[in-house]
Amino acid sequence: MSDLLRHAWLVARKDLQVEVRSRTAFTLALVFTALVLVVFEYGRDPTAVPTLDLAPSILWVTFSFAAVLALNRAFQAELENDALEGLLLAPISRHSLFWGKLAANLAFVALVQVIGLVLFVLFFNVPVWRVLGPLGATMALASLGFIAVGTLFSAMVVRTRFAELMLPVLLLPFLLPPLIAAVTITTQLLGGRPLSEVGGWLRLLAAYDLTFVTLATLLFPATVTE
Amino acid sequence: MTQAPRGRWTTAVALLLLAGVYVRALAFTPTEIAQGPAQKIFYLHVPAAWSAMLSMALVGLGGILFLFLKDERYDRFAAASAEVGTVFSLVMLTTGPLWAKPIWGTWWTWDARLTLTLMMFFLFIGYQLLRGAVADPGLRARYSAVVGICGLVLLPFIHLSVYLFRTLHPRPIVLKPSAPSLPPEMLITLLVSFAVFTLLYIGFVVQRYAIGESR
């Protein structure tokens, strides 16, 4: 078990190191997030729809798009110079490889989400500070299972034609349960309702995460083993 | 008899029986009081939904069996089932709005079962697009197995989340804890239609499987 986690950490660290050194994908994801927020501002009539009513949708649609685009990056880099072959030849289990990739993706998406949240507050003047803890927990819970499926699928689609379009088409149905839960919870939180009222939704998110992290871990070897 | 003619014969028999279902539903089954003739589409819509869900379940099962047994026949079966499932989903998604417009007053609503079946349709489409985008047969089989299994596991979550969100669909009338609240004539027509649609599914899949084999 400790080897499994140690190897996973090595894979994640490698990915994040590459990211820190180039910063291209991160900058792209961030600028994309900011631009989607701008599009939302002008895609509605502010006199007809109060910002607070639309805030959960703005937040989660922005996060979803950013996450889907960011996921393409995870295995794209491994295609150059057949780096994936090297990774597969390394004496580490496929599960470590998956968890490493998943951890790097989660870190990447979490950072984009945090900065996206700041921009969201800045642009739309929504008071999220009172509910920052619960909102952060919701963001983490809503992302985990979805990013796990996304990591699994991105390992496959990079080797298909039309990879950039294939991933969203395969992945967006999987976004639906976490999206519905996250938007409902966010609406309640911003409306000043206590967290205890959304216990059912939190349990649904937890069940979704548990199911899909397990399933993706089990299925991942089938996507890379020759 | 080889696969292809067997499939053709099954399909022919099923289509003939389907004509019988039409006759029975239209002429020999009482018309529902509140909904009038619009309710007749029920005998087509619900069995089509059944066949679509059966297809999805078997796509997932085919994927599991393929990953465990590495026998490409399961992959070919899953591919056939997905294609047939797409057709049944389309029948379901066409007949549903036709009924909903006069009865609910709207073509579409974001109810739990509608959303579920729409997503199932998209999963079928995505599954086939993925198959088309992978050239290597071994890779294609493994990739589609993974997507098929994930899709099958996803559907209960979609249903649950949309169900918690809102629902408007008619309550279950056959598969529920108490006795079916359907008059016996209607129930028989529905059950016969279920059987015919299952046979139709088998006929289509056997034919499609045979095409996959000859490729």
Give an account of the 3D structure:
The complex is a heterodimer of chains A (226) and B (215). Chain A has 226 residues and is mainly alpha-helical. Chain A has one domain. Helix content of chain A is 83%, strand content 0%. Chain A has 8 helices and no strands. In chain A, helix 2 (24-42) packs antiparallel against helix 3. Chain A is globular. By secondary structure, chain B is mostly helical. Chain B has one domain (3-171, 179-214). Chain B is built from 6 helices and no strands. In chain B, helix 3 runs antiparallel to helix 4 (112-133). The mean pLDDT of chain B is 88. Chains A and B meet through helix 6, helix 7 and helix 8 of A and helix 4 and helix 5 of B.
Estimate what percentage of residues of chain B fall within beta strands.
Answer: under 5%
Total helical elements of chain A: 8
Spatial extent as radius of gyration of chain B: 18 Å
Major sheet summary line of chain B? none
- Name the largest protein-protein interface in this structure: A-B, 32 and 29 residues
The percent of residues in helical segments of chain A reads: over 70%
Number of domains of chain B: 1
Find the structural class of chain A using helix and strand composition: mainly alpha
Please state the average pLDDT score of chain A: 88
**Strand content of the residues of chain A, in percent?**
under 5%
Poorly predicted residue ranges of chain A: none
Count of separate structural domains of chain A? 1
Which structural class should the secondary elements of chain B be placed in? mainly alpha
Largest sheet of chain A: none
Mean pLDDT of chain B: 88
Shape of chain A: globular
Helix content of chain B: over 70%
Secondary-structure element sequence of chain A?
HHHHHHHH
Q: What is the number of helical segments of chain B per DSSP (H or I, 4+ residues)? A: 6
